[in-house]
Amino acid sequence: MTITGTTQSNLGYQNLIADSIFNFNIGDTFQYHDYGQSAINQWDEYFLSLTILTKNISTNGDTLLYTADRQTYNRNFSAPNLLVNYTHDTTTLIYPLSNYSYLNKLEEKIDSANFAIKGVFVDSRQTCGNNIWTKAVFTCLYNLSDSCLGILIDCTNTFNYANGLGMVSFDASTFYPVYTELIFYSKNGVSCGTPINFNQLLSVNEINKESFTLLNNPTNGILRIQTTIPESIITIREPSGKEIWHKTIKNTGLVELPLNVANGIYLLTVENQNNRTTKKLIVNNY
Question: What is the pTM for the complete model shown?
């Protein structure tokens, strides 16, 4: 394996370490979309925006400390109740680098303890039309068989980090979706994604979840939905916010739509005048 610096990252792997991952600058903005579902009629959606205001380093150089302007918008649905909350304040971000020392490891360094396996590896991801190096950290649960061999049960908890961006995604989805995505950032004059419009979020009502149901998720080329909404627009976006597909439907009941979209995880939004809801969509073309 070849390890190179940032100036020659095309020649091999570029290792990422904690102090570069969490190296933010004053004025940097990071915006996240978080979604978690625990039952058919119970979910939580969260939008977060952070803009760095101040930056300090502890005297021993181990801890990065920031203050940030913070906006949050949260929707919590537990049938039949929908709770909405918005806050705008200042918060403190603290990163003790020694607590993140596992991020300094190269790929394929594995630790195992207490029936869990933690792995770290370097990968290249497409972001804003460019490949950037990311550090992925995954955790797998396992059980011991009668022969004392470890049997993997689940490997769903995965964190991805990038230099100067911190955590860019988290996925703990099993039967229901649970994930966090960095959907917009502005750093050193470079912006990526679509910024969150909090004014629009505060003016939009939530479509009743029972009015629109995805019947096949994952889907494999045909999007099947059950809807009681007479007219609506369905839009599919990448986690970055880039729109890749949309369709207007006018009829209700069972609707089947051909979907020519590559395998991956997307955000599906259905809108009707001043109403909207967003769901996680998994495309898996066999």
Answer: 0.62
Say how far residue 97 (Cα) sits from the centre of its chain.
Answer: 23
Number of domains within the chain? 2
69 φ/ψ angles, rounded to the nearest 5 degrees: -70, 130
d(CA 137, CA 54): 28
φ and ψ at residue 38, rounded to 5 degrees = -115, -15
Name the residue type at position 190: V
Residue 285 C-alpha from the chain's centroid? 22
Beta-carbon contacts of residue 61 (< 8 Å; ≥ 6 apart): none
Q: What is the CB neighbour count within 10 angstroms for residue 186?
A: 16
Q: How far apart, in whole angstroms, are the C-alpha atoms of residue 251 and residue 270? A: 14
Does any domain span residue 1? no
Of 94, 93, 91, 92, nearest to 62 (Cα)?
Answer: 94
The strand pairing partners of 56, in sequence order, are: 65
Tokens of 259: 């979907």
The answer on 240 and 111 residing in a single domain is no
CA distances from residue 235 to 128, 191, 280 in whole angstroms, order as listed? 20, 23, 12
Domain residues for the domain of 242 are 204-283
Residue linked to tokens 């073309």? 285
Residues 183 and 253 in one domain: no
pLDDT in tens, 217-272: 888 888 988 887 777 888 888 766 678 888 888 888 888 888 888 888 888 888 77
Q: pLDDT tens, 30-82?
A: 999 998 888 877 888 899 999 999 999 999 989 999 999 999 998 888 766 77
Q: b/e map of 48-76 (b: 16 or more CB within 10 Å)?
A: bbbbbeebeeeeeeebbebebebbbbebe
Per-residue buried b or exposed e for 252-266, using 16+ beta carbons within 10 Å of the residue's own CB: eeebeeebebeeebb
- The answer to whether residue 246 is domain-embedded is yes
Task: List the one residue out of 278, 282, 246 whose CA is nearest residue 262.
Answer: 282
